[in-house]
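Assess this one:
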Amino acid sequence: MARKILAIYPHPDDETFVGAGTLIQHTQAGDSVTLVCATLGQMGRRMGKPFFATRESLPHLREKELRDACKVIGIADLRLWKMQDKMLQFKDEGYLAQKVLEVFDDVHPEVVYTFYPGHGVHPDHDALSAAVVRAVTLLPETQRPVMRCKAVTINSRQVLGDPAMEVDVSNVIQEKISALKAHKSQTEFILTHLEEQIKAEPGNAARLLAPYAKETYWIYDTSGKTVS
């Protein structure tokens, strides 16, 4: 039975780096996936290698890259808030939570993907994911979606325990790489090196692709407990 899935991230490419493979598996299974991207990554430091973007052109470029990645992933419902990059931490959490609730009211998701609050490394990651948690807790318990959160801090396993989910996405690894390639301004330098390694060591392709073949999530328990 098809499910309603919501992914909420601050920047273009978060959805791909965090869980493109998982989202591709959802869309291939017939699930309806909505993606909220809060900013256009206007303040990103990477502008291609060699540079092919400017500070002025970067937000437009990153929006196009995001739309291209969504096509690869199979996301038809993309919602852009177009807030200022690196400023979400200064937004009122209640305001952000209300915006999230508006999406909940429209989509009625069964599963939500976002960062794990306090373990997102980037202030935007933590601010938005905290607002998502706040929004979920404002819902009646019977209507709360499952929260699958990505923790990227170095000590996440020590603090949170092992992730609750380790998703094998090896069956869609090429689609995931294509989604990464769509975010050319942010990923070209990484993927060029990876492709050069695979070309030089074709027998080790599986090993070189292994880091991209699994995606991990912690389940955030909105009762205040961490489920691992």
